[in-house]
Amino acid sequence: MPTLEQTTQEVLNLATTHFKLSPGALSPEDDFFKKLGIDSLQTLELLSRIENHFGIELPDYEVQGVSDFKTLAERIQSRL
Amino acid sequence: MLDLAKYSSIGAALKDAMSRFADEVCLMEADREREKERLTYREFNSRALPLARAMQDAGFAGSDRASIIMTNQSKWLISAFAIFYAGGILVPLDYKLTPVEQWQLLQHSGARILVTEYPIWRQLSASPGRATAANIQAVLVTEAPPNADLAGAKRWEAQLQKEGRSNAAPAFVPRERKDIASIVYSSGTGGRPKGCAMTHENYLEQCVALTSLYPFWPGVRYLSILPTNHAIDFMVGFFGPFTCGACVVHLRTLRPEFVRDAFTRYKITYVSLVPLVLKNLQKGLEARFAELPRGKRKFFNFLVSVNKALTKSQPRLWLSRRLLKQVHAGFGGELRAIIVGGAFTEPQTLQFFYDLGIPVANGYGLTEAGTAITVNDLKPFRADTVGKPLPGMEVKIVDPSEDGVGEVYVRSKTVMSGYLNEPELTAEAIVDGWLRTGDLGKFDAQGHLHLSGRKKNMIVTEEGKNIYPEDIEAAFESLPVKEFCVFAANFIWPRRSMVGEQLIIVIRLENGQAFSEQLKQDIIQRNNRLLNYKRIHSIVFHDEDFPRTASLKIKRNELAERLAKLDRDRVILPL
Known about the structure:
The complex is a heterodimer. Chain A is an all-alpha fold. Chain A contains five helices and no strands. Chain B contains 20 helices and 28 strands.
């Protein structure tokens, strides 16, 4: 099983690819709403990509109120 | 449809709907591609009544209050019917609020029972806010895992079993039309929560008015996406369809791909969306149309223009469905209208869908007025207005300026009885029977209402969230400056616009204090702790002390008048 650090890095990589950013543009503490200027709907699209990548299901209630990559990675880690 | 004129309460109408439409399907629930539940009215009733009995056994009496904090799902509606059956007052709360905010409102509402879902309860029970709501005597939690720590709550599902509850049928507790049916929070988790006390009459009258334009009948399927605590979904995703024998479809996840799939899987008839989602849907469709090969795209555009010409005076669904078959098939082929609400929708988005043969029921309303005040009647479709007043609504424009724009006032049987425990706020909002909406608008020659801004200090986001500046200020408490105040920018500098509304923080620095990087970061960090749609966008520095009352409260209106004299574009500094 990957470590939390590895999961966090994978999430950052996925977001970087999904939103077509340059590598290293995102860090774990970043608030994705603010940093990416995205709305709740665009976040949902990213979540679907993350689910496919990790092969898990993240119910909506698990990600309710989450706005930074680090917390998101923790929620993913708990389901791996 | 039931003849609602004959009923005096929501509970009585729903009770009759259960027997009248017993064998019709009233609920479908899906989690992603898995269908979890399909209930007839008879089955729905057989779950709600034991719950009502269990509540009564626990001492829940007529006119007691019970709150629901749940995502959209079958147990929300089952619980609500049980509460109404027992004569109770429903307090529907937003599941997206923070636990502290939810406890504040639970305390304010005086609810005795809370019905919630396990993931929500996990957060609520761990929140320090719990101590503030001693009025909550029982908590019923749905879908808790077998060995879960319930933190003093009881399992919702266990209430439906016979063990531990009396065998007697629950007593149906009748209510009068003027009695309070629910307390709906239109805003305010800060100092002064605004709980709209809605009567049974408010709902009964609104239901008659709305279904006269957008009817339901057995076989109609409504996709419930807007939170059911919201006035719109409560009406068109529960009370409206249930009094007509129609069916409500719930999804346990709102990821766009599963929502899209639900349209075709369940052959959806109506759906309600907030403008943000509608706009997103438009973007997705436009991108797909743009990908068509040139020849096909040309032909498609030709079909759209034919549809546009043939539906100019009124929608012709059968024709549009034939002309633009693939578009309609993508929506399941049965979609009659998209209901949009919660915030202002841009005309070009409305027109885009109408040109495809999908009418958008665009309107204007506020919780205080009971869901909708005006709705587009599609005779003909108008994208540039919010429609005409619904039957039974009196709407007038007060103190119009030269161009006819003034404050919108409403009088109707659907207007709330007042704000809970707030006689002063109620007296400010309802004057001689007229509800002052705080919105600015005018009527055109055809009787359509055009909105053009706000008189009140608030913003509405594209996601349909009402944000009051006072509620944001707590996040900036003890900010190391002399004083500060949060405003809606358009309240200070009125703009004839209902889109792109923003919050600003007005700061008065200490004498000799400079705006340091440290202070800026402090503001940014506090701002980031707010939910994204509640965040402030800009700072305005003010170099005079704020006007204050004898009790040292900021005189917001006076401060706003002072700021209004300044040049908006020059003084606003983006954060």
